[in-house]
Every structure is written in structure tokens, then in C-alpha cells.
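User: Hey, quick favor. My workstation is busy. Could you predict this chain's structure for me?
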Amino acid sequence: MTAIARFGAVSLDSRDPRHLGQFYKALLDFEIRYESDELVVLRGGGVTLTIEQVADHKPPDWPGNQVPKQMHLDLFVTDLDVAEEAAIGQGAVKAAFQPAPDRWRVLLDPSGHPFCLTVPPAGSE
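Assistant: No problem, here it is.
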């Protein structure tokens, strides 16, 4: 079987992506490949880490579960429509809310975890 997508990035939610991006840049010695108020893309050690702005972000209450841990996978694809159809064929469900369907598609895995099919952002390769 041919893969539907390739692992792209781990994406973290943050109220302030630039601040968190600087933290992980220093902590991991990653290079910032793209930076805006809404998105930071870091790369290092063959890994891409993205940090996305969530205005009403609430930090997880580790070790509790009132506010769960927040992250999702970005899976890189070349054709969003083809990849979406294939992922649904493997058991994914398309999320009702699609914030930018021309750039990425939000799907839910069989356990309900969201993940995104996306074309690679500039600087992630």
C-alpha cells in the first residue's frame, strides 16, 4: 500500500506563537523558518514544529484532565482532495468545521483526535 501522506509536523497551540517559538528555538537549537503573529515554523533534526495561535488558549492542567493536552499532527500531502478521500477510506471522519479548506483539511482519527492534511508550509522542507 502506498502512503496517503507523510509526517509533516507536530503543531502546538499557543496564545503567543512568537514567544513560544523563541523558547523552542533556544531549547532545541531549531531554526525559525517562518514567523508571524499567527504561525511559527521551526525546523531541526529532521523535525518540523509549528506553533499556531489560539486566542483563547488555556494551558493544560497537567496532570489533571479538565483542560487536556493540546497538539495535533500535520500530515503533508500533494493533493488535498485525493488525500482526504483516501484518509476517509481508512476510517477518518471529516470535521464539520473547516477553517481553511483550500489550504488544509481537518479530519478526526478513529479515536476522535484531530489531524490536518496540508500542503507543506514555506520553509518546512
